[in-house]
Design a protein that fits this description.
It is a single chain. The protein is of the alpha/beta class. Helices cover about 50% and strands about 10% of the residues. It is built from 14 helices and six strands. The protein has helices spanning about 5-10, 15-25, 35-50, 80-90, 95-105, 145-165, 180-190, 195-200, 205-225, 230-240, 240-255, 265-275, 295-305, 320-335; strands at about 60-65, 105-115, 125, 170-175, 260, 285. α1 crosses α11 (about 240-255) and α3 packs across α14 (about 320-335). The longest helix has 20 residues, at about 145-165. It is globular. The relative contact order is 0.18.
Length: about 350
Amino acid sequence: MGLLEETVAKIEKLDQEKMNQAQERLDSLTKPPGSLGKLEEIAVKLAGITGELFPKVDHKAHIVMAADHGVVAEGVSAFPQEVTTQMVYNFLNGGAAVNVLAKQMAAEVTIVDIGVVNELEAENLVIKKVKAGTDNLAQGSAMSRQEARAALEVGIEVGKDLISQGANLIGTGEMGIGNTTASSAILATITDLSLDEIVGYGTGIDEAGLKKKKQVITQSLAVNQPQVDDGIDILAKVGGLEIAGMAGVMLVAAANRVPVIVDGLISGAAALIAKKLKPQVTGYLISSHKSVEPGHIKIYDLLGLKPLLDLDMRLGEGTGAVLSMNLVEAATKIISDMATFEEAQIIIE
């Protein structure tokens, strides 16, 4: 049994008994039942994930998977492929939006080169390159099945290392010019929705670019015919290395009963792949924000999740995931630190 199979086999259902206890505790606190809305829902979910009534998420870790996409050759992005490399160095130097937000949230950021075209060198870069970017999915498979599997296992390894170091809340983010095309192709494979309903402007292409992007996705699906019931096949045919890496992180977090936050469209596509590999993984996922990418809310629908935030964001990097971390921690404080009616000696007749 390989690392992927071992990890998937460890994922269990949420602890329903502990979730019931959490709900009882929340209903006894000095507030009307359900009045803290999604914070209460998170507290219950965290109890089910961790098996603890008063879980802690005080060691926040955020993973940014970086990889390039051969489909950029089709003109689907407003930015050149070189920007992936440039942004990786920006992350490493602490100059990107995700760095700024992670610092505010006291989250540790890990940058992983899982498939950048250029050879990168930096002391604080985790280099686990599966291949130098995917192949052009409009002309054939983005990668081989073996490469897709290897990328999933990179995510498992990176997530496992952080969990062994004490991480108890993990955010997922990415960098890869062209990755909204791959993510939309994954979503188009899994759902019957039209491309008009799920494909957006990505990094800021114009109307002509959007039309081209839809044509490329249509062509990629016709050429590759990904198998809807096979997550690895979908990844290999029309996916991305960083998408596979994030899916691996989600799987290993679930296997270790650690909550993991889904970010935008690309992270959401990774969650769809993870769900294909183990449906129970969705119980361990916490939604962050609603992206302006039209396919993103469709992904949440497929995952059975509702976004915590709606800030008209479409940056990527995991910025929405990081922004949600303190809300998740707030939920743990509510259930553990608020007084019950009995403790506060408040009598309701």
